[in-house]
Amino acid sequence: MKIKRIALLLIPLILLVSCNNKDLNNDSENTGENRFIDYNYNFYQNGRVHLGVNENGSNVALYTDFETLESVPLCAKPNCSHNNNECAAKLINSNPIIHNEKIYFLSYVDGVKELSNGKREYYINSKLNSLSMATSESATICEFNDCAPYTDEGMYLYGNEIFFMATDMGPYENEYGDIVTSDIGGKQFLCSINLDSGEYHNYGTIYPKDEAYESADSSRHGFIVGCKDLKLNIFYSYIPEHKSNSYKDFVLMNIEFDLENKTFTESSLPSPSYLDENSYVGYDNQNEKNYIYYKDNTYEVDAEDRYDVSLINGKYFDSNSDVWLDLETNTEYSMGKYKGYIAVTMYENSYILIKGQRTVKLTEDELFALDKE
C-alpha cells in the first residue's frame, strides 16, 4: 500500500459532520436513532449482529458480544436447535434492524406468472417483517410490489424510518419469449418504511440521467454507504458504453439524498467507500486510488478496489492489503496474522476487527505489535 499526503485536491475538502457514528465508546445510543446498518456495521448494545454458521452448520443471524467475543443465534425461542426453518435466526437475512425491542428485516419473492391471454408477467412481492426479541413472534409490517429491496447492503435508520435501496430487476422479454431479470441494472430506487405505521415510500430513481445510455440498463447499481449532515451518501455506478469489460469502464458517483428535503443531488466528492463523523474515504477507479479526507489533511492511497475499507481513530484499514496506515504519523504497519480483517469500531479502548463472522479485539499496543510478528 502506498500513501501520499496531499496539500490540495481539485475536489474540495469539506468539513464533515456526520449523523453516522461507528465508535461504540462515543455512541451510547447505538441501538437507538439515526444509525447506519450494513454487513460490517450492524451494532447492538456492546456487540454486532451478522450472518454466520452455528455449531450445527446452519446459516443463522448471530450476535457477537465485544466483551467476551462469544456468538449466539439471534433467537429467543426456548429449547430451539437453531437448525430448522422455524428458528428466528434462520429467518433473518444479512441486515436485520433492531429497534424498540423488535428485529425488522426485508424480504422478497419474485417470479413469472402465466396470464389468461397466454402472455407472461413478472411480479415482485416485497415485505418488511418483524420479530419480537422477547418471544420471536413474527408479523408483517408492510408489503409493496414495485421493487425488490437490497437485503444485504447498506440501510439507514432515521428516527423510526428505515431507508434502503431497491430495484425493479429490469425485466425484459428475450427472443424466446422468456422474461429475464437481474438485480444489477434495471431502475435503482431509494425507499423508506416507517417502522411504527408501516407507511412505505418510493422516492424514485436516484440518477435518471444515465437512462440516455443503453449499457446502463445492465450495469447500474447503488447502495447507501453512510450519512453526514442529514444527507445519505449513496455509491452509484453504471457503464455508459461497454469497451473492455474493465472496472474503469464504470462511472462511479456519490449521490446525496437530503433526509429533510427529500431531494437528490450529485456530490463533488469521489464515490464513497467509507464515512463517519469526521472522515471520508472516496474511490477513483480511473487512478485506482482512495482519497482520504481526515481532519485538515487529504491523502491518496493506492487501492485495487473500493470495498471493505475503514478509518478508525486516525488509522486506515483496507481488508485487501496486508498493512494498515497511521495517518497521524504517515506510517504503515503490518496486519500480521490478521491480514484480510477490517477494523469497524472501538470498544473500551480496543479495536474491533472482523473478517466474515470472525471477530477479534486488539488494544493499540497489540495492533502495533502485529508489525513485529
The total strand number stands at: 32
Strand content: over 45%
Euclidean distance between termini CA atoms: 19 Å
Structural class determined from secondary elements: mainly beta
Helix count from the secondary structure assignment: 2
Largest sheet: 6 strands, antiparallel
Low-pLDDT ranges: 5-21, 25-31
Describe this entry's structure for a reader.
With 373 residues, the chain is mainly beta. It is 3% helix and 47% strand. Strands 2, 11, 12, 13, 16 and 17 form a six-stranded antiparallel beta sheet that branches. A five-stranded antiparallel beta sheet has the order 1-25-24-23-22, with no helix packed on it. Strands 3-4-5-6 form a four-stranded antiparallel beta sheet. Strand 18 (221-228) and strand 19 (231-238) form a beta hairpin. The longest helix is centred in the last third of the chain and has 6 residues, at 364-369. The radius of gyration is 21 Å and the shape is globular. The two termini are 19 Å apart. Mean pLDDT is 88; it is low at 5-21 and 25-31.
